[in-house]
Each structure stands twice: as structure tokens, then as C-alpha cells.
Amino acid sequence: xxxxxxxxxxxxxxxxxxxxxxxxxxxxxxxxxxxxxxxxxxxxxxxxxxxxxxxxxxxxxxxxxxxxxxxxxxxxxxxxxxxxxxxxxxxxxxxxxxxxxxxxxxxxxxxxxxxxxxxxxxxxxxxxxxxxxxxxxxxxxxxxxxxxxxxxxxxxxxxxxxxxxxxxxxxxxxxxxxxxxxxxxxxxxxxxxxxxxxxxxxxxxxxxxxxxxxxxxxxxxxxxxxxxxxxxxxxxxxxxxxxxxxxxxxxxxxxxxxxxxxxxxxxxxxxxxxxxxxxxxxxxxxxxxxxxxxxxxxxxxxxxxxxxxxxxxxxxxxxxxxxxxxxxxxxxxxxxxxxxxxxxxxxxxxxxxxxxxxxxxxxxxxxxxxxxxxxxxxxxxxxxxxxxxxxxxxxxxxxxxxxxxxxxxxxxxxxxxxxxxxxxxxxxxxxxxxxxxxxxxxxxxxxxxxxxxxxxxxxxxxxxxxxxxx
Length: 470
Description:
By secondary structure, the protein is α/β, with parallel strands linked by helices. It has helices at residues 5-13, 56-67, 70-78, 82-100, 123-133, 139-148, 201-204, 209-228, 248-259, 268-281, 323-329, 338-358, 372-382, 389-392, 399-411, 414-418, 431-445, 457-468, and strands at residues 20-26, 32-37, 51-53, 162-167, 171-179, 185-194, 233-238, 264-265, 290-295, 300-306, 312-319, 366-370, 396-397, 450-453.
């Protein structure tokens, strides 16, 4: 399961899911639509329905079929078609065998679900079995799926704009967008505010009042945008510095008061997976395995995946190195000294060694870099006279370019970096730390060049949110 699957299922069902073992099938939109459940729920209740349908749109379409008398027609055919009856009994046997893999429950021994083997009582169960088992196993389930057709097409699973908000160590960003029936993201607004929420957290262990006030002011601005675009669903994720601070409650309460949503302090692995989903959907002709690396303010995420047939995550990890954390910890003079740079290099090398235990960099045939450090270095490599997302997106950086640019940035004063025409004011003092992380990535993955994506975790959140309406 992906880290947010249970949250999606909870939204689909309107309640907490019970006894979920795994995702048995996913909708074309990528959200779960069938879950595999334990034969005995955590509260001790016997539960015969191993494959439980969760998608509300599919459930609605099947409910329409039931109201039209389809079940009566199917059951009547069981008494006249011996071959159909035999295949339906085989479906019953398959159901029992798969459930037995999860344990035997005496109260439901020999009882499958949906009316099998000689009645048709619930088309939702039969369709769920057919989706989980694949075509040719449950004849009536296959018929139901054929009758409902491509129920997910024509309209998004969550019609209307959705908003994704990513609050990191350095910045808070919002993306308001629709995702059409073809899976194309239609962007309405994309904004960023440098709020430095993680300022000083590495030494104090808490958010400063000034950082909270800056963050809440940005939330108030984003509330105006959310209302203006008629947003239907909002997801607010908080990363890195939001995981361990002592005054997290003040942060959560302040965001909820202004936006009406509770920040999700997501894990590093989920952050990596959402970044991967956003980054790869923004680039074409990627050769798998693909390594996506998101260099943030307080942490860096690595995720290795396959995009040859959909999106499949193979390994991921988050480590505590980022442009703000490295700058605050070591790069304290202007410009930094060789000793300070060496201290950063040591921390970064140790973190990369840790990451390499979980993610094998050598497998990557494509490397994709996302977030402000990577895009800013790309703008410098391209010699841009202003920050141009269209030029930056899809560009590539090789090791020699990154080595040269990292050295140049570290030798500059803050005022000199601030004078660069493409440099965002919020990155002036931390870009050197980020460039050192990027340089280590290039050294570890060379000769594969690093492709630059303007799309990242925000886009990943929107794809998942638009797909589910959660």
C-alpha cells in the first residue's frame, strides 16, 4: 500500500476502513477501488467479504444495475445454463481459497460472498472479486464490469478544482488545478512564499513565533485563492521541520483556523512517493528505473521507481540534509570558509551513504531533480536573464556543470548571489548548501545527467487528490 491509501479509502467509505490487508485493485485514476480484508476483523467479527469494493462512483454505477433487476436475471440463468453455473461455483471455490490464505474462521467456513455459489445477492461483491482476480474468474463479476463500462471517464473522480499545499522548511506553496479525464493537469494557480518555518529548528527544536506568523500570513493569502477558484478539496501536507517540533500543536491549530484543514505531517517516504508521482508525470520519454531526488530545506527525498507501465515505486528514503539545515548548521560566514564547506560535505556524504542503503543509485537509468535548488542551478547553467520555468523544465545538468556552478555560488557573497537575475530572494542565503547536496547527487550518479523538473510533490498531491476527492 502507498502511505495515503488508507486515508483515501476512509474518504471513499466515509468511515475508518477495518481489517485492510492490501490493495487488491486500483482504479484507472490510481486510487484504490478494491481492498483485501481479514476474515476476522480486529474487533473479532467474522467477515466473509475478502474483496471489498471501496470506489463510490463504481458502487453507484453498480447500484443502478441492481435497481434495474440485473441480479434476478443473472440468478435465473444459473438454473438454465450448466456451464455458467459450473464457472460460478469455481469462482466460489477461488474466493474461499484466497480467503483461506489469510486464516481460517470457523463461523464462515464454506461461505463465500455475493450469493455464490448458487445465488446472486450482491453485484458489488462479484465486481470486487472480478477486479481483484482478473478476467475469467468470476463470470457475473466480469459481466457487471462490462455493463458499467469506463465509469471513471467523462468526469474527474473529484469534479472541480482541488488545492494542494506543501509546507516545508523553507517555503509554503500552493497549486490549484483540475485533472481532466485523460489525466492531464490543468493548472489554475501556483504560488510560493518563503516563510522559513524551519528557521532555527535544528538548534531550538521548536517553531519561532516569527516563523509561525509568516506561515499563517501566507495561509491567509492562500485562503483568498481557494475561495476565488471554488476549490472542492484541499490537502495540506507538512514536511521535515514539522515532524518533531515541540510546539506542533500551535502550528496545526493556526493552519486549521485559517484554511479549515488539518496539516498532515507526512512521512519522508510518502513525501518521496508524491514527489515521484508529480515529477514523472511532468516529463516524457523516461527510461526506467527512474531516480527522483527532491532537495528541500530540511530534508532530501530519494525514490526509485518504474514508469514503463504506470507508476511503480521500488524504494524510497528521506534523509535530514537540505539547503536550510546545512546552511544554518555550518555555512555561517559570508562567503563560507573552506572548513565550513568541508563540514557540510561530511554531513552530506554520511546522509548519502545512509540513503544508498535503501535506494541503489547505480540502478538508475534516469535521474530527475526537483525543487528550488535544482531549478535555480539549471537557470544559472542556462544563463537566463530571468527565471523562466518553461526553459528550465526538461533541461539537464551534467556533473561538470554542477561542479562549476556549486563552486561559483559558494565563492559569492550573499549580495552577489542576490544580484543574479533568476535568483529568488528566499534562496539567496541557502542556495550554496543546496548546491552541495546536488553536487553529491551528480557525483554518485554520473555519468547519468540530471533531468530538471518544475513539477514535484504539489503535482503529485493534486493527482492523488483529484483522483479520489479525499
